Amino acid sequence: MPERPHGVAPPRPRELQLEVTAACNLKCRMCLVRYRPPVNRLAGSMSFDTFRTIVDDLPELERVTLQGLGEPLLNPDLVTMVRYASRRGIRVGFNTNGILLSEGRSEELITAGIDWLHVSVDGARPDTYEFIRGRDERDRVARNIKTLVAVKQGIGGDRPSLSIVFVAMRRNLAELPQLVRDTAAWGVPTLRVQNLAHDFSDTGSEPDYAAIRAFTGEQALWSGDAEVRDTFAEAGRIAETLGVDLRLPALESRVRARAAGAPGCDWPWTSAYVTHDARVQPCCMVMGADRAVLGEVRGRKGFERVWTSAEYDAFREALRGDTPPDVCRGCSMYRGVF
To answer: Which of 42, 140, 225, 280 ranks highest by number of CB atoms within 10 Å?
Structure first.
């Protein structure tokens, strides 16, 4: 990230993450969706007009991620968004829980030009999957993954790149080696293992965050004890044997070493997160539309007005020092363990 004078906004970002919907068809224990009132599928979706306005105002865009707290496949305009971005030469993709990833939808997305597609599978056993995700859809998701791989092979070409995503926690850790085997059997080349995103320590005793704060405290693997390291090592050996690209997170919670004045995280200089209702946040790791809102995208040049605002600049400046914004302190990406 190039150095810039303090108080001067960086160039407009070449990548964005857009929360195309806040609605979801699951209630995962590590996600705020579980602990909030249900969101209507239509009311909770980003409109295509909002999407197009943001994309058109940023001709430099090279990559757009279409996901947030909700399930992207619930947005009725998702395929249209993918097609629009792809025709603009923008790489576009998202993470899905895979429940709605039917053969027809897989074909639509691939022909629309999707560049990458990640499917979340947080357990090798149906009961573990049900505990984490709220209901047992594990077998259905596995069938949809195999169908997706077959559709891609039938259409030909090297897009989209496919990955399985596994959020590691105490409850599902022992099943990681089997999930490596499943990933290979499904014909997916990559398995991405992630830690829980946030410890929510900045929420203090706020009751709205009590349940997810408690769950994270019980399930997080940031301590990196012997069981975690041994399981990661076993999964790595199996992945090497089966030819799976296994990507594992760091396990020691620490603030990344950096030069004086360099930020602990470069998200606010290189990208941004826009909620379904057009609120701009510094990144996707904030998790909570009521936290670290830096402005709203309204009308043409709306994003640029937020990007160059005093509020955004103050957030960036705080990340340069030893006292980052409160919301960043519990972030696993800021601490280098995501």
So the answer is: 280
Report DSSP state, residue 121: -
CB 36 within 8 A of CB 287: no
Residue 2's pLDDT is 46
Q: What is the mean pLDDT of residues 173-200?
A: 97
- Grouping H, G, I as helix, E, B as strand and the rest as coil, residue 91 is strand
Residues 6+ apart with CB under 8 A from 57: 300, 301, 302, 303, 304
Strand partners, 117: 94, 162
Q: How many whole angstroms separate alpha carbon 177 and alpha carbon 175?
A: 6
Question: Full-prediction pTM beyond 0.90?
Answer: yes
Place of tokens 């103050």: 314
Q: What does the pLDDT average to over 297-324? A: 92
Burial class (CB in 10 A: 0-12, 13-18, 19+), 336: middle
Lookup: tokens for 268: 């606010």
SS3 18: strand
Residue type present at position 317: E
Identify the helix (H) or strand (E) that includes residue 246. Answer: strand 245-247
* The total number of residues written for the chain in this structure: 338
Q: What is the dihedral of CA 99, 104, 110, 114, to 10 degrees?
A: -40
CB atoms within 10 A of CB 23: 20
pLDDT, tens only, 94-113: 999 999 999 999 999 999 99
Q: Provide the residue type at 152 as one letter.
A: K
Given its phi and psi angles, is residue 201 left (phi above 0), alpha (psi -120 to 50 degrees) or beta?
alpha
Q: Please give the structure tokens belonging to residue 233.
A: 């090592």
What is the distance between the alpha carbons of residues 222 and 332, in angstroms, rounded to a whole number? Answer: 9
* Residue 13 preceded by cis peptide, ω within 30: no
- pLDDT by residue (tens digit) across 55-79? 999 999 999 999 999 999 999 999 9
